[in-house]
Structure formats: C-alpha cells, structure tokens
From TrEMBL, chain A:
Keywords: Nucleus, Transcription, Transcription regulation
Record keyword ATP-binding present: no
Lineage: Eukaryota, Viridiplantae, Streptophyta, Embryophyta, Tracheophyta
UniProt-annotated location(s): Nucleus
GO cellular component labels: mediator complex
Single Gene Ontology MF annotation: transcription coregulator activity
Organism expressing this protein natively: Hibiscus syriacus
Source organism, top-level taxon: Eukaryota
Main location per the UniProt record: nucleus
A Pfam entry, by short name: Med22
Protein name, as recorded: Mediator of RNA polymerase II transcription subunit 22a
GO biological process: regulation of transcription by RNA polymerase II
UniProtKB/TrEMBL annotation, chain B:
Name of the molecule in the record: Mediator of RNA polymerase II transcription subunit 17
Species: Hibiscus syriacus
InterPro entries on file: Mediator_Med17 (IPR019313)
Protein localization: Nucleus
Protein family per UniProt: Belongs to the Mediator complex subunit 17 family.
Length: 148, 645
C-alpha cells in the first residue's frame, strides 16, 4: 500500500503512527474477510453429503443459507474496504496532487505569458495598422473631397 | 372420505326411565363409568369406509392403467392421492392416539417404525438428494445475484471515484463524515471558495455556491445539482446608450446548472465518462466564475460608498448598482442570472434607461464616446483579480501603474478617462477634418489612463519637389527636409490635456539669436479650448514654415504669432494673417492679407475692422499650403533687396 511508502518528509510521527495503525487494521480486516469466505465455502462443500435423517438435511440447508449469507457479507465488507482505500487515495495522495497542481500552474503561467505576448503583438499590429489606416485615410482622395 | 357424510345421532345424555316398578320406583339404567364411555366410543369407530376406499382405489387404478394412454392424466395425480390418503390415515391415527391417551383407558406402550422397504429407502434418499440439490441451486442463484450486484457496485464506484479523482485534479474536494449516508450522497463536497489569498479585513462573505455537494445520479455517476439561476454574470452598461450592443454580451451568457438536463436530452448513456467529467468541469468553472463575479460586485459596492474621486452612487437595488462618474456620465453594474441574461438584459436596460433620464442628451454620435461594455467588464474583473490575488502574492513586485491598491478609485478614473478620451478624439477629428493639410495620428500608449495623439502638418510633396529642384546647398536641403512636418502632440492623462507643439514662438525663442530653432511649447488646456489651441498651433506652424521658406530664398520677414510680415519697397508692409475659428465649418484657419503703410494707419482706425473688402485688408479664405506657398512667394518677389540667390 502506498501508505507505507508515503511516510516521508512531510508527515509527523503521530500521523505516521496513525497511518501505520490504519494500515494494520485494514490488513486485519482483509484477512478476516478472506478467512470468513474460505471457511464458509469449505463448510458449504463439506455438507454436500446427503444424510439419512431428513431433519439433518433440513438443518444443513439452514446452515448452508447462513454460510452463504456470511460469504456475501464478507465480500461486501471487502468491497467497502476497497472504497475506503479509494477515498484514502483521493484525499491522501498529496504527492501526485501537488505535482499535478504544479504542472498545471506552470502550464497556466506559460499560457498567461503567451497570451501577454500575443496581446502585445496584437497591440503592436493594431497600432501599426491604425497608423497605416490613418495615413492612408488622410492622404486619400475621399478625405480630400470631404474637405473640399 | 366419500362425498356422502354419514351422521350418527347420539341419544341425549338424559337419564331415561328404564322401567317403573309396581311400587312406583323408577329404574334408571345404570350410569356408565368414564372408561366405559370411552370404550363405547372407540367401538363405534367404523373403519369399514377405509377398507372400502382401498378396494375402490385398487379397482380404479386398474381402470386407469387400461385407459392411461387414452387420457391426458396429470403425472402427479397418483402421488397426490397417495399423499392425501396417507394424511388421512395419519390424522385418524393421531386422533385415536390422543383420545386414548386422554381417556387413560389405553396407553400407547410404544411405537415402532416399520422397517422401511428398500424402495422406500431409496426414495427417501432420492428426496433428500433432490432437496439438497435444490438447496445448492438456490445458493448458486443467490451467489450469482450477489456477484452481479457487486459487479454493478464496483463499476459504479469505478465511475464515481474515477470521475471524482479527475475532478480533484482541478478542484478542492472535501469529505464530510456523515453518520447516515443517503443513497445519493457519499458526503463529498467541492469547495470553490479561495480563502487563502484574500484580505481578511475586507473578505467577502462566502457565496452560497462556494460549497457544492457531490451526488449520485441514477447510473451511479457523480452529479452536481445546482438550483436554477444560481450562476450570475456581471453586466456593465452606460445609461442612455442605445442597447443595440447588448447582444455582444451573449458570449458570456451560458446555460448553467443544467448539465444534467443537457445530458438527459442528449441521451445520457451515449456520453462517455470523459465527456461527462468535462461537462462537470465546465459547470464548476461557471460556478467559479459566478462566485468571482459576485465578489467583484461586492468589491464595487464597498468601494463605491467610499469617498472616491468622481464616483457617486445614484441608485442601488438588489444586485444592481448605479454610479455617476466624471462629467455626468452614469453607468450601472448588475448581477444577473446567466441563463436569463439573453432575455432580460435588454429589457432591464431599457427599463432603466426609461426610468432615469441621463444628465445630457445622447445622440448617435455620443454613443461611440462610451467605451465598450465588454472591455469595461473585463477591466473590472482584472482590477479585482490583481488586488485580491496578485497583490497578496507579489506584494513587493506590484506595479504602481496598474493596481495601486485603490481598486475602487482606479475604475472610475479609467472609465472617466476612456469617455473623456473619446470626446477629445472627436474634437481632434473635427478639427483635422476641416483642415486639409492636417493629419491625425493616434499613439496607443497601452496605459489605461493615458492617451496620446499627434496632429501632423505636412508640407505638400509638390512644394518639396519644387524646392529640391532649385539650386541650393545640401545643408539647406537637409534643413528643409526636416521641417516638412510639424507636429502637435496632444497627451491626455486622466482628464488633463497637455498640448505640446513646435513651431510657435515663445519666450525661449525670443532670447535665441538663431531663428532656425523650432521651439516647442507645452501647456495644458481644457476641452473647450482644445480646438482653438490646436488651430492656433497649426497656424503658427504654417507661419513659421512660410517664414523659413522666405528665409530660404533670402527674404527676411517678420514673424509674429499668427502674422508674417513682408517688407516691400518704400516701407510698405504686407502681412499674411491667420484667423482661427473652430466653429468655421469650411475650415478652421482662414487667411487675411493686410497691407500697411504710414498713411494707412488712420484709415485703419476708422474703417470697420470686419470689412473684408477694405483696400488694406483682404480676406483670402481658407487656403491650402500650396496656395499659401505661392502667395508667399509672390510676396517675396515683391520684396526688394536682401534677396539671396
């Protein structure tokens, strides 16, 4: 898990200890759930023998339903664990997030500089065009005719 | 049992007289004990019907077997009948046992299960196996359903968290630990309020849109639901200006909060997750812009009520602010819902225009005096951005020219300058248009509160060519080449007009021995005097030029501010006098020819000064430079002596 490798320069000792404890808890949950699934499935397979007393078969039927429900519950617990890990990745992935933010900041700064240069160039071109237009206009026959 | 119900009637448990003896004694039958009663009841049970039913059943079976092929019998009918019969027998036996046990007449010593037959054992085993198989199948279905549900949940979470992670790259995602999470809310919010760079003392109150909840839609994808009309855009305008340019703002107006509606309309399933995330990014960006616009408006509200120079609040309503700046110019700034901007902007603006009479009349010409609305909106946003963000970030590097820390005061100064600049340009154009030998050139300063123009007076090329053909020294040619253009520079700083021109005589020139120095004048003036100042400057430049031309041909002339005097023979003087009139439609500068001698002084005092037909004063009209040059050359030719070839 990245949590173990994420302990670096930034977090304090308390945060590192909390992260380690959380990691340990999650591993325990994973082991518990996996063990539950395996154990229940084993029991399911073991009661496949058909017994003579029908009542025992009924009893085993109820037990199989219970073990199946436990398996599904353990699987659901594992899925919730995965969700928690995803959320932790979202809210604790500071390294990648900071890198991304820095990258985007550089991009935007470059874009801002490029835009400024473009605006300056546009301004220069507009000024040159304006100068040319004014020169042409005031030298044109139309303007001369207007003044006449 | 059979359909017919046999009923046996018991005698009433009433003591009936059995016999009466002769002595009158009544003889009743002896009372039976409780056990005897039970035994009598047991003896009354008739199992004959069961035996008869068995016989009939066997008979029917034989009949059915013979007709089995012909009829379409239900395959489980026999089993059902067997089960029913077994049930009946069991019921009877159980009732019997219960009755016997209740009466204590007979006690069940024991019951032994009959030894099952082999086929019964196998059938029981088959039933058990089938039951267990059925159970496993049900478990299999249950596992499949669970697996399908888990797959859907995994896919849902993959979409949701994938989109959330992508959103987190650009936005601040927060998690609220809610105890009971609803099905559509995992407790995630997106915080759009930036409280790290603001001046806390003047911090705006957080907008209601600052925190956006992340929810799920029906497909499991994250969704952001906004209330309609929650996003607002900034609108800027000048009162009294025709609202023809309102549609130019349509680029700012966008539909908002309707991302989901757009997606529903365009078949949601067909849009990929990438497109959906992009749409969400766009929506968040719109909200962010709306928050920014709210903050800009709030800043304007704060600054408008400060004692800023040239800013007066003339009207205020919800999300609407009206200011008066400069010389009676009224503008309004409002926050309007983005999706209603197209429809309501023009209506609201027209209503406002009709409600408030502007301070001075606006015609179509004055419409262009006002700066572009979009540029003003952009500049307002830029001011706020620089003061709120850049100022905090780069305090030592803050440029003093742009945002000098007084954002509210910059804005009206800029607007006032922009409006005044347009007016000044109009005046300059009016002047230049009337004088054919004047050219106007605009110098973009790229400064928001400084504007600059130059009025050129160019000597016609025909005159320059004519001069170049005359035998003159190279030095003189170079000198005249320089003086082919005269410039008058007009600089507008905020609302101060500075005019800088060359060619007019001034105090400095009086002390200079050489007349070849073209002195430069600098002075300030107001708008009303600007046309006159320009025309005076130009007229003086023309006089200077004619003076130089006369000197070139060796004739010494006297140059006054607007007068060039030629000394003729016999002491007579002829003067070319410029008359400046900004209101003259035909041209701003007209010329007079004034002749003076010793005897004409008395005449001049008695004559009407405005009589152009005087012998000593002749109105020449609005002359071009060519005509002036030829006139001055004619006068030069009339001058005698001192002419250098």
């Amino acid at each position: 898990m990245n949590k173990g490798t994420g302990v670096g320069i930034g977090p304090t000792a308390a945060a590192a200890a909390a992260a380690a404890q959380k990691q340990k808890t999650m591993m325990h949950r994973v082991d518990t759930d996996i063990a539950s699934i395996v154990d229940n499935f084993t029991q399911l397979v073991n009661v496949a023998r058909v017994n003579d007393p029908p009542v025992r078969n009924s009893q085993e039927t109820f037990m199989m339903e219970m073990r199946a429900a436990r398996m599904v519950q353990a699987a659901d617990s594992l899925l919730k664990l995965v969700s928690e890990l995803k959320q932790t990745a979202i809210f604790s992935g500071f390294a990648s997030l900071n890198d991304h933010v820095e990258h985007r900041t550089n991009e935007f700064n470059q874009q801002a500089e490029k835009t400024d240069r473009m605006l300056a160039r546009i301004g220069d071109e507009a000024a040159a065009s304006l100068k040319e237009f004014e020169s042409h206009y005031y030298s044109s026959a139309q303007r001369t005719a207007e003044t006449e | 049992m059979d359909g017919n119900l046999e009923i046996s009637l018991d005698k009433l448990p009433v003591k009936r007289l059995d016999a009466i003896e002769e002595n009158g004694a009544e003889r009743y039958p002896p009372d039976s004990s409780y056990d005897e009663k039970g035994v009598s009841l047991i003896r009354r049970i008739d199992f004959a019907w069961a035996v008869e039913d068995d016989e009939e059943r066997e008979r029917k079976k034989k009949q059915k077997k013979s007709s089995k092929d012909a009829s379409a019998a239900w395959q489980w009918q026999s089993m059902v009948e067997n089960l029913q019969l077994a049930h009946q027998e069991l019921s009877v036996i159980i009732d019997l046992i219960n009755t016997v046990e209740a009466n204590d007449a007979v006690t069940v010593a024991g019951m032994t299960r009959p030894k099952p037959l082999p086929n019964e054992v196998l059938s029981d085993l088959a039933v058990s196996a089938a039951t267990k198989l059925q159970c496993y199948r049900q478990l299999g279905k249950y596992f499949k359903q669970s697996a399908k549900a888990f797959k859907e949940q995994i896919a849902w979470e993959a979409r949701f968290y994938g989109a959330l992670i992508r959103l987190q790259q650009n936005w601040k995602v927060k998690r609220q630990r809610v105890a009971a999470s609803a099905s559509s809310n995992e407790g995630f919010t997106i915080d759009l309020f930036d409280n790290s760079l603001y001046d806390l003392a003047a911090m705006c109150r957080p907008s209601s849109l600052s925190t956006i909840r992340v929810e799920h839609d029906s497909a499991g994808m994250l969704a952001i639901n906004l209330t309609p009309n929650s996003c607002r855009s900034l609108h800027f305008g000048f009162l009294g200006v025709h609202s023809a340019d309102i549609p130019k703002n349509t680029s700012k107006i966008r539909t908002h909060g309707s991302v989901e509606q757009r997606i529903r309309e365009s078949e949601k399933e067909s849009i990929s997750d990438d497109d959906y995330v992009k749409e969400t990014h766009t929506l968040l960006r719109e909200v962010h812009q709306s928050i920014f616009n709210d903050q800009v408006f709030e800043m304007l509200n704060r600054e408008a009520f400060n004692q800023s120079v040239g800013v007066n609040v003339t009207g205020i309503r919800e999300n609407y602010l009206q200011l008066s700046i400069g010389q009676g110019n009224t503008l309004f700034i409002s926050l309007m819902p983005s999706n209603k901007g197209d429809n309501q902007d023009s209506a609201d603006t027209q209503n406002l225009e009709s409600a408030i009479v502007p301070s001075h009349s606006f015609d179509t010409e004055n419409k262009w005096v006002f700066p572009n609305r979009t540029s003003c909106e952009i500049y307002l946003q830029q001011i706020f951005h620089e003061n709120a963000f850049v100022k905090e970030k780069d305090k030592p590097n803050l440029s003093g020219t742009q945002a000098s820390g007084q954002s509210g005061k910059v804005e009206p100064s800029l607007l006032g300058h922009r409006i005044f600049s347009s007016i000044v340009l109009t005046e300059l154009e009016n002047v230049v248009c009337r004088v054919p030998y004047l050219h106007l050139m605009t110098h973009p300063t790229w400064h928001s509160r400084t504007s600059s123009w130059t009025v050129f007076m160019k000597v016609p090329q025909s005159i320059l060519h004519a001069e170049s053909q005359s035998p003159k020294s190279d030095f003189q040619n170079m000198k005249e080449a320089i003086k082919s253009q005269f410039r008058t520079k007009v600089v507008l700083n905020d609302d101060r007009i500075n005019v800088e021109g060359e060619g007019a005589p001034n105090v400095v020139g009086l002390f200079k021995s050489s007349e070849n120095i073209c002195s430069v004048n600098k002075y300030e003036c107001d708008l009303a005097d600007l046309p006159v100042i320009i025309l005076l400057q130009v007229a003086s430049q023309v006089i200077y030029w004619l003076h130089e031309e006369a000197l070139t041909v060796g004739i010494k002339t006297n140059r006054d501010f607007l007068c060039l005097t030629f000394e003729l023979e016999q002491g007579e003087t002829v003067s070319l006098v410029a008359h400046v009139n900004p209101g003259d439609i035909k041209g701003g500068i007209s010329w007079w020819l004034v002749m003076e001698d010793g005897f004409a002084e008395d005449w001049k005092l008695q004559m009407d000064m405005h009589d152009g037909a005087s012998d000593y004063r002749k109105f020449l009209g609005h002359l071009t430079l060519d005509v002036l040059y030829s006139t001055s050359m004619d006068l030069v030719s009339m001058c005698g002596g001192g002419r250098n070839h």
